[in-house]
Amino acid sequence: MNKLQKALGINAIFSGTSGLGLILFHNTIANIFEVVNSSIFWIIGAGLILFATTIVYEIRKQRLLAILWIIIQDFIWVVGSAILLFIQPFNISSTGNNMIMTVALVVFFMAINQYYALAQTDNLEKGRKQLKFKRTINASKSAVWKVISDVANYHQVAPNIDGVTIISGKDEGMVRSCSHGKDSWTETCSVWEEEKTYSFIVNTNTPDYPYPLSFLQGTWNVIEKDKNHTEIEMIFELKYKKKIITLFHPILKTKFNQISDGLLDNWKKILENK
After folding, report:
1. Nearby residues of 219 by Cβ (< 8 Å), 6 or more positions away
2. Which of 14, 74, 187, 205 could anchor a disulfide with 111, C-beta 3.0 to 4.6 Å?
């Protein structure tokens, strides 16, 4: 079990046991809070058990957006508790307010712990991260290679690229310039094996490089499943310029996922609509 699964597990246990306690002892808790209507407590308890169930599901699936939504819900709980403590709309007892504050603090630290663990995903050595994307295409290996190796026209399929110019060379050693809006950068082909794989390393050291990365390498592989089915595998290795940016990795990764899915979708359309 990785750090993220452990962090989610703590949340699931706390939320589940809290929800069960609210359901079983709603009358007692209502007396402690000095409120007449106890039904609100078992309603909240049922909601917490449902919330815990979704967390357990994501411990197995570990879907990025779903986990981010869990963390957001934790922060919503904290903000809601703070508003409740500040406005005091229900004349809750001081003991009840202390319980609300204590639970809010626990939830706050759980949310921070989960987000930090999420930010540590995809780690490689030396501070690098690795992202992998795969898509099986209904086409032969040679047909797939012909399309994805057309690196001079990469901008026609990549959602984040507006233009590509080959500056020099061919295959391994090729240098190309890529642009997006007003931003531009150069990339050098470090590996080229015909009908198998190629890699580009982005020149991130130029003063005008627009993104917060000190290293970025993309590798594209074609893997034959059978004569009519081929898998495209994309592997990106990256390193952020500053460690603090790593904390934003889950958010930046969602954008990276969208771009990569869009690229694979476009290749699939080209190859399967022929």
Report:
1. 191, 197, 198, 199, 234, 235, 236, 237
2. 74
Q: Whole-angstrom Cα distance, residue 58 to residue 55?
A: 5
Question: 100: which 2 tokens?
Answer: 């609300």
User: Which of 119, 142, 158 is the last residue in one of the domains?
Assistant: 119
* Residue 130: domain span: 125-272
The last residue of a domain, from among 91, 119, 147: 119
pTM: 0.85
Using CA atoms, how far residue 135 sits from 151, 161, 192, in Å, is 18, 20, 20
CB 266 within 8 A of CB 161: no
**H/E element holding 41?**
helix 39-61
Q: 220 forms bridges with which residues in the sheet? A: 198, 234
Does 274 score more than 80 pLDDT? no
**Taking 90 as the threshold, does the pLDDT of residue 125 lie above it?**
no
Looking at the structure, do residues 76 and 154 belong to the same domain, yes or no? no
Phi, psi (degrees; rounded to nearest 5) at 226: -155, -175
Tokens read off for 129: 């991260």
The rounded distance, in Å, linking the Cα atoms of 232 and 221 is 6
**139 burial level (CB within 10 Å; 0-12, 13-18, 19+):** buried
Q: Which residues pair with 197 in a beta bridge?
A: 193, 221
Report pLDDT digits (tens) over 43-55: 999 999 999 999 9
Half-sphere exposure of 109 (CA within 13 A, CB side): 7
> Cα-flanking dihedrals φ and ψ of residue 219, to 5°?
-125, 135
What CATH number is associated with residue 239?
3.30.530.20
Residues 178-226 pLDDT 10s: 999 999 999 999 999 999 999 999 999 988 899 999 999 999 999 999 9
Smallest CA-to-CA distance from 41 within 58, 60, 18 is with 18
